[in-house]
UniProtKB/TrEMBL annotation:
Residues 1-21 form the signal peptide. One of its GO terms (molecular function) is chemokine activity. Residues 27-84 form the Chemokine interleukin-8-like domain. InterPro entries: Chemokine_b/g/d, Chemokine_IL8-like_dom, Interleukin_8-like_sf. One of its GO terms (biological process) is immune response. CDD domains: Chemokine_CC (cd00272). Keywords: Cytokine, Secreted, Signal. This is C-C motif chemokine ligand 22.
Length: 96
């Protein structure tokens, strides 16, 4: 009887270890609090959070090296992303 219980525990642990391994590592950074007032002239780039995060978010990278979470649905965030994308495309056409 003890062997059966021990075998069941080992099997259960193996299944848990396998399913955890298949999920892989979690996302590196998710947003749980969002900033509303950001000095947009200090933003140098942005990154979208992983789709595996519970709240979709945009990480704004500032000149000072900070990352601020903002909501991707906010109109000003959409405008900022468009501005940054256009700025990066225009800068990549350099002949230097």
């Amino acid at each position: 009887m003890a062997r059966l219980a021990l075998s069941a525990i080992v099997l259960l642990m193996a299944v848990v270890a396998l399913t955890e391994g298949l999920r892989g590592a979690g996302p590196k950074k998710c947003c749980f609090k969002f900033n509303d007032n950001v000095s947009i002239n200090k933003v140098v780039s942005y990154t979208k959070t992983s789709q595996r995060c519970s709240n979709p978010g945009i990480l704004l990278n500032t000149v000072a090296g900070r990352q601020l979470c903002v909501k991707p649905s906010a109109p000003w965030v959409k405008e900022l992303i468009s501005y940054l994308d256009n700025k990066n495309v225009a800068g990549s056409n350099s002949n230097l």
